[in-house]
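Issue 218. Parser rejects a valid record. Input:
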Amino acid sequence: MLLYNTKTRKKEEFIPLEEGKLKLYACGPTVYNYFHIGNARAFLFFDVVRRYFEYLGYEVSYVQNITDIDDKIIEQAIAENTDFKTIADKYSEAFLEDTDALGIKRPHFQPRATEVMPQIIALIHDLQQKGFAYEVEGDVYFDTAALPEYGSLSGKQIEDQKAGARVAENIQKKHPADFTLWKKSKPGEPVWDSPWGEGRPGWHTECVVMSQHHLGQSFDIHGGGIDLVFPHHENENAQALALSGKPLARYWMHNGFLNMEGEKMSKSLDNFITARDILKQYDAEAIRFFFLSKHYRSPIDFNRELIIESDKAVDNFYKALAGIGMDSLDENPVSSPEILAHEESFQDSMNDDFNTAKAIATLFELANITRSANNELPLRQDAAKMLLKLGRTLGFFKDPEKRLTEEIPDLSKALVEMMLNYRNDARERKDWALADKIRNDLLALGIEIKDSPEGSTWNMRK
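Output the parser choked on:
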């Protein structure tokens, strides 16, 4: 397997720190509002990373944090005239509801920053003892000049970092690139006691503690959106290097932006659409297909027409399964060499830095084999089983039986079955005119009939 490592700017062979195990950390939300679909891209992609390693047989430990104390949370609490915990709890629950609705599996561990405050304080104290941190009037900063490796992840040199758009100006700092480890609280803000007085932690330190608490000093993969490379991930890695001399993660994976009319979708630009709102308009699997049909490192432009096309593509998979009949698929493993070759093709695509676009092409090939009346039934059944197996690896087909047997609005399933029986009787009598009329009348109601050597089946047409 080859993974593109942001740190080295090239694809590298994936070699786990422990054979057969994957330790994965991906940055979660800062819970001060509903997350937008640009954020959803990262959450969906690392869900696929987790699923694929599980498909390969790895023992996966997946950690995704929830940042529940931050300036933005405090600002939102003031705006809603409440306290920070109420805001954090409200939007944490909303995050879980929306990721569930997107079909994202919950991580094995989902720590919150406020749950590990003693460990955060201990880490900052250790950095200070080792000479990598300094205090100024209750604020504690990381001394970037004390770490020669600073900038090794992002490629940014410390001498090039001046106060400006990306580096906040602060006359207390020794250097503009120095970042906050502990922040002295202002009146009315939430506080925790520490050796430096009452305050709260910096964002970068929270993630170091939460990841190492569950995965150890150094782990396999750290992921997130490309906007987190600097300063967030650079500053996380700097603290790990300062404490142990080991990088926080061996491989750093970052997905590209979702753009809105050429600009990065973000709350700060006020050009975002929440995942909650988009789920009211489109099926979750269509949204997943929309993202996975492009390589994860490539930017994507938000396009409603493409999401509609994505929904049609997913529906094509379900129609293939409906045509073969889920109840015809037994538990026996796939044995057809032709279908097993498609699985190898799928793996080749995924092993090439998670090329999900090519992997999806394999799903289409399997769907076509499943639907073709020219193929023998055992081959079609094997293709359907493989379509389900590989599709689920990408996060599709959460509950295909439910989708394929949903009640038809304004018309009972029994009535459709009765009309289908009338049509079958007409075909046996070679009354093609009546058979065609029944078929066309049902089609006008949105019910599509599919004939095959094994019989006739029906499904709702989108």
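Fixed in the parser; the record now loads. The chain has three domains: 2-275, 304-399, 413-460.
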